[in-house]
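Obj.: predict assembly geometry.
Materials: sequence records (below).
Method: joint structure prediction, all chains together.
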Amino acid sequence: MDKKKQMVEIWGDVVEIKSLIIAIIVSIVSTMGFYAIAPSDDKTKQLFFGLIGAVIGFTISAIFIKPKRIIVIEEKIEE
Amino acid sequence: MDTTIIIQMILMSLIAVFIYTFIGFIPGTDETSVLMPITLAVILAGTPPVVILSFFIAAIVTLNLVNAIPTALVGLPGGVMSSPMMEHSLYLKEKGLSALVIRKMAVGSLIGTIISIPISLILSGILAPFGAKIKIIAPLLFFIGAIFLSLIGKNKTLSLFSIIPMAILFMGLRHLYWGIGIVPEGTNITTSFFLGITIGPLIVSLFNLLNKKNRSIVTTKDKKEISIPSNSRVSKTLNPFKILSEEEIKSSIIGALVANFLFVLSPVGLTILFGESLSNRIKDPTKKATTAITTMSALAQSTYLSGIIIPLIAIGIPLSPTAIGPGGALFNAPPVFSLENNIHHLLSKGEFVAAILIGSLIAVSITYYITNRFASSISAFVLKKIPHEAILGIFISLIFLLAYMDAGLINIFGVLLIGLTCGSLNKMGVNYGIQFMTLYAAPFIIEKIILF
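Observations (raw structure tokens):
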């Protein structure tokens, strides 16, 4: 099987292993990177920077990785 | 209280509703891991205590309702609290009743909020004089809680046997950190251990992927197909009494009422216990499922609200799973809050009532309207735009961040160890409630066990 396109079901949804590894690495690097540039004597700023980094990592992953879901909108009329 | 503070309270409640409406729609996001870090950041930023409380109350009310929506809409639980609804939701979704279910959830959550706020305020008033005494026996109560939750759970013996080994794991790590001097002796690391438990099952699943044989079991060739019912034709009524049957109203009121008195027990446990037992007497399978869903939705609100309000007002230490977990930062967020100086000590009775009312009323009214009107469109947006990979990524990076902030690099691996152990136990059948109770009872258990 083509290892790069391997998809697995985890935590109730389908992910591609390669994308998952990339997302995890991007998120950790971005989170810990922002944490590292925060002033080291200020715990509040460290947490804030870390959270901002996490959100940025999340955004980058969300832009570059496509969800492995097929969405069907049911146009059924309910009572 | 002056006007600026009230405006701030309203503003922060609106922000909470906005943030948690989106987070709630993301499938699988755990309550603790999404509530705790953001609340902690709000606290550390120097926000006034009364504003923090409005923010938090608005956040939990929003999240509890919105988390339930994906179960009905797409068949994925929005969070831990909505997992008990899955079976009933899926049954109703297959019958094409998703839109109806969402409206019933919204009303259930409205009932739960309206019932549990006055009741938990009254209960706090009654319990307050005993607060100091309860505080002394708190460790014993956590231990009894762990045993009790084991006994009412499905895997009694397994759960009972797992309590002491888990306590040794937690205390073992703490003593190691004290021993090597990375944290001062006596400082109990809790936040990151808590998240380790929460993320445990995911860590175990991820580690399983590293084993080739196990990976092939979960490998799939197909994308996940999700159907979203369009809600364009849903009837326009917002009148709660027209949406629920008398039976459903009765069950949700009873459930929400009783849950308040049991605020020290696990919210998920209570939701399953009362949700199932109140709906079990109904014969018709569809009515049974809708009653279960409505009642569980009311229970989600009442267990969380009583679990945070009563310990905050009456006791001042986190003596309920909600207070320990999602609300942990309201009790202990060094250097702003400590167990001796937190929201319990800083707010007057009037400020408590004002913060709770503003937060909950803003959240419940906005989410009630949004879920009735826009559930399908928000859900479609989230599912089309947000990849599961990014969600897992942000979870893991949050654990990294908080573990590192608690006790450095070694703690990242310590939390990993906790995740692997507790996650495996979780998959075997030891539920979260028991594990959280054990985490808090751990110092007591170790202190007593060495006496024998």
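Conclusions so far: The helical segments of chain A are 17-37, 43-64.
To do: check interface contacts against the pulldown list.
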